Amino acid sequence: MDYVSYNGEISRKPQIPLDQGFLYGYGVFETINVAQGKPVFFADHMERLKQSALVMGLKLTSHPDQIRTECLKIIAKNEMIRGGLRVTLSKGLKADNLLITARENHYDRQMFERGLKICTNDGVRNEKSRLVTIKSNNYLENLLILNEAKARGFSEAIFYNTQSHLAEGCMTNIFLIKNGRVGTPAKDCGLLAGVVRNRVIQLLKANHIPIEEGHYSSDQLLAADEVFITNSLMEIMPVNQVDEWCYGIGPETLTARIDVLFHQTWGQR
Predict the structure, then answer these.
(1) Which of 1, 163, 216, 269 is deepest in the core (most CB within 10 A)?
(2) How far apart are alpha carbons 144 and 86 in whole angstroms?
(3) Which one, of 16, 14, 15, 2, lies nearest residue 74 by Cα?
C-alpha cells in the first residue's frame, strides 16, 4: 500500500506531519473497511469522526463527500479490492491536517471458522475518561496490552472498568450469547461504540433476536454459550477461548447465523 493522501495531495512517500497529532497524539481517526473496492459504512465513520473532532476541539473542514473522493483515489492508486483505510485528523499549527493511509486486511474466513483466542488483562478501563468514547490517537495503552496478549498466544485482550463490569477489547467490542439472547456492554461501561457494533445491534433488533446493552461481570462472561467480537475490519469474529475458558463455535451457532444475516443485509464479502 504505497500511496497516501495528505491534505488532498496524493504521494507515494508517506508524509508525517510534525504537528501536535504526531508529537502528542492530539488527533482522532477512523479505520474503514474496504470491500469490493469500496469503503464500507463510510457515512457512519464520517459521523463518528465529526463527533470525535468536536470533543477534541479539532476542525474537520473537509466535507464528507470530499473525503470520500480522496478515499476512492487512494483505493484506486493502491489497486485495493480488499483492505482498510485510516482517516486521521490531527491538530495542526495553523489548520488541522487530514491524512488518509491504506493497509492490508488480514482477517479472513479461515480465521472466522477457527475463531480467536482472547484474554483478560490487568488494565482497568476508566469509564469516566473523556477520551474513552472517541477514537483518539492515544492508543499506546491499548497497543502495549495487545502486544503482551499476542506474546502469550492470544489475538486480543479485553478490559473491565472500575466497577468490574466488562467494557471492551483493545481493538474490538465484545458480545455474549446465553440461551439465545445476545448481550453487549452498555456505552456507560467505558467503551468506544464501534460502527460494526452499532450495526450488529441494529441487525439483531430488525430480526427479532433478543439483544441487551447492559453491565456484565466476569462470571457472566464465563457462563456464556458463545462470545464474538467486532470491529470494522474483522466485522464479526467468533471467540473460541477467553483465557482458559472455551466456547462453542461453528456453522450451527447463533454467532454464525448473525454473521450470515450481516452479510446478507450489507453484502460486504
Answers:
(1) 216
(2) 20
(3) 2
Letter for the amino acid at 185?
A: P
What are the Cα distances from residue 117, in Å, to 4, 94, 161, 179, 241?
Answer: 33, 45, 21, 22, 5
**Residue of higher predicted confidence among 12 and 29:** 29
pLDDT tens digit sequence for 152-200: 999 999 999 999 999 999 999 999 999 999 999 999 999 999 999 999 9
Grid cell 441487525 in the structure block, residue: 203
Q: Are both 136 and 117 inside the same structural domain? A: yes
Burial class (CB in 10 A: 0-12, 13-18, 19+), 196: buried
- 39, 105 in Cβ contact below 8 A? no
Closest CA to 199 of 248, 261, 257: 261
Beta strand segments in 18-63, E: 27-35, 38-39
